[in-house]
Amino acid sequence: MEKREKLYEGKAKIIYATDQPDKVIIYFKDDTTAFDGVKKEQIVGKGVINNAISSLIFEVLNKRSIPTHYIEKLSDREMLALKVEIIPVEVVVRNFAAGSFTRRYGVPEGTKLEKPLVETFWKNDELHDPLVCLEHIKLLKLAEPEDVEKMKEIALEVNEVLKAFFASKDILLVDFKLEFGKTTDGRLVLADEISPDSCRLWDAKTKKKLDKDVFRFDLGDLKEAYQELLNRLREK
């Protein structure tokens, strides 16, 4: 597999073309940001850990026949994936109250929701990723309504698989964000990454945070928290 030109660089990853037009190489950076990039830092080795965690989780999902862009982990910092056009609608699944949900609705952090809540957000940094409903998505022409419904359906399926997977490691899946894209042949697949950058993960007993909230709110050493998470996910 030959790595070619850079196609895109985001806050945490770089996407490179390959000699196969339907495949890309995703490089995980050490950059860490929060609050729409207001808080930022380079944490050496963070990209290596996130690549390992994301690859491991995608492998779990692929084994359950959930459609993803993931093909294989190539190196410490790189994974091979299908090339996709990202749909600018993020899907968030919440099992417990946390983050923006607690700020919007005043529900105490850690409150278990009666059933998983699925929310959709417009992927737009300038507007701070606003919450949108299906009518907004249709009006703004962000995605086809049938694709949004399928994204929600897949997100709930991912939730059931990952809740059980994390529970087996004594970890609570509090909430998580998913991105989706269309492959070059038009298939809808789960894309981007699934890591502690995009999930809230708490120790099931102590409620210790093992995700990016450690960085957001200066709760300790982020790399140490991510490494603990990876070690626990690797346990048999």
UniProtKB/TrEMBL annotation:
Record GO terms (molecular function): ATP binding; phosphoribosylaminoimidazolesuccinocarboxamide synthase activity
Residues covered by the SAICAR synthetase/ADE2 N-terminal domain: 6-232
InterPro entries: SAICAR_synt/ADE2_N (IPR028923), SAICAR_synt_PurC (IPR033934), SAICAR_synth (IPR001636), SAICAR_synthetase (IPR050089), SAICAR_synthetase_CS (IPR018236)
Keywords recorded for this protein, A-Z: ATP-binding, Ligase, Nucleotide-binding, Purine biosynthesis
Enzyme class: ligase
HAMAP family with a match to the protein in the record: SAICAR_synth
Protein name: Phosphoribosylaminoimidazole-succinocarboxamide synthase
UniProt source species: Aquifex aeolicus
Gene from which this protein is expressed: purC
